[in-house]
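Name: Glutaredoxin
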Amino acid sequence: MTEDPQARIGELVANNDVLLFMKGSPLFPQCGFSSRAVAILDHLGVSYESVDVLQDQGIRQGIKQFSDWPTIPQLYVKGEFVGGSDIMMEMYEAGELAQLLEQHGLAKAG
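Structure predicted for Glutaredoxin:
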C-alpha cells in the first residue's frame, strides 16, 4: 500500500464495493453522523467495509479533497461517491439508497 493518502484512498474505494469513511468503527461510532450512516447500512442489510478516519490523519484530511466533500462520514458504492449522512438519510427515506445497492447487486436478498 502506498504512502500517498490520495492513492491509498483511491485503492480503498476501488477495492471495496461499499465503503464508509467514518469516525470510529461500526461497533463504536465516534460521532452521531457516523452512527446514523452505520444504522442506515445495517438496516439495509448490505455488507460494507469502513475506514476509521480518526486512526489516520492523512486519510482524514485526504478524503475531503478526494471527494470534494467537506464532512465525514462519506459513502462510496462501486467506486462512486454517494454522499454524507444527510444525503444517505434522504436517499434511504426515498428508497433510492436501496435501489442503488440493488442495481449493483449489493442489496440483501429477499
